[in-house]
Design goal:
By secondary structure, the chain is an alpha/beta fold. It folds into two domains: 7-272, Alpha-Beta Complex (tt1808, chain A); 281-462, P-loop containing nucleotide triphosphate hydrolases (Rossmann fold), CATH 3.40.50.300. It contains 15 helices and 22 strands. The chain has a seven-stranded mixed beta sheet with strand order 1-4-7-8-9-10-11, with helices on both faces. Helix 5 links the parallel strand 8 and strand 9 (202-206). Helix 2 crosses helix 3 (68-79) and helix 9 (282-296) packs across helix 11. The termini are far apart.
Length: 466
Amino acid sequence: MPNFISEDNIEQAMVQRLQHLCGYDAMNCYTADPDDTNDGSGRTDKREVILRDRLKGSAVALNPGFPESAIDDAIKQLCDKRQALAPIAANRELDSLIRDGVRVEFRDEQGRNRKERVKVIDFSNPASPHNQFLAVTQLWIQSIGATAKAGYRRPDILLYVNGLPLVFIELKNSNVKLRTAYEDNLTHYKADIPQLFLTNALCVLSNGIETRVGSMSAEWEHFFPWLRPDDEKEKVNREQIREEGTSAERFLAGLCPKEKLLDYVENFILYHKETQKIIAQNHQFIGVNKGFDRFLRREELGGKLGVFWHTQGSGKSFSMIFYARKIFRKCAGNYSFVVVTDREDLDGQIYRNFLNTGTVRKADAAQPKDSAEMRKFLGQNKRLVFTLIHKFRWPKGQKYPLLSDRDDIIVIVDEAHRTQYKSLAENMRAGLPKAQYLAFTGTPLLGRVRKTNPDNIIVGWLCESQ
């Protein structure tokens, strides 16, 4: 049996790691009297969770030349409780403001009317001195929930960036089942202090021997471990992790360094049909980032971006979405994605997931009925084209026509083990000769022969050497 670890010890160890290994500041806000506002947070109202002074300081620094009135307007929008909205809708709205900036309007020094966005986090430079990372412990928050069961709640650890609480961490003694942190704490906190979850990116539950991560809308069954900090090929000894109580350390190393946390907040959060928040799991975060790094090296790789291996039911279509969204957001250019499957049900499912997560508007997506229509859509610079491999059929012996010679087309081939070895793939490559090619599969073996070079295997990926 693992040795007993108290939640106080887990809290102290996590905060020390955040300070010494990740460069966070730390602030213990505990007061014996929950009403006491002299807790170091700078708040004058215990119902507030955003640290306004810190938020304003960062916003002023990140937006030089903006008048104070514009900064104040942005802060007001961010601090609005949005009580008329459903929690998931409010969270999505704030997620957009945090990622893309807050729209404001003002007159500049020349008297011109300007419409701008106030940036509140510098995602392009996580180490910027204008990004303040703060681990706050034992912060009393006054309940505002209509059916609150307690007047105040006190989360164990909150991770703030520029005064915004982005990560909620609830801890338990190691001899307490982790599910208790979800059922007895997180569930009640969401009901009693919903204002804390307006800006929340992710929730973390830990008793030392087990640590799980989930979104604010996730059921317990959808909270997942985060055991591999950097390398998905790492062989994880789960029993040893339990015995040594190192699960929290692995989560901190995998997701809490400044550049990793901001990358996650910026690129790995989705909202599906306005009702469900989806955040990347450990394998998706590592795998998509490895794939993104290969995309940045696409000229060197000759357009062969690799093969992403996924087990069944592990969120393959959402990995595609995270990958496409990151390229759209982080890479300048006019990219088009062609998603190729070999079954109509897969084609429809992936198409709907791209639409339902807002990754692409219906006007910018297309499902061509044949090669001629595909050529037309690619000429129109559609952002997403979804098609079946069978639509690359062509009379035997005849040269397949050129669909596009653009080099900013990324072809994602789903279930590559069923399609890539067929002659249809030759037509696809003939029609899109300068495209970049990426394959997703759940079957990296073809018969008894592995079609990969072991030297090219990277995290989450089996990279084609041919």
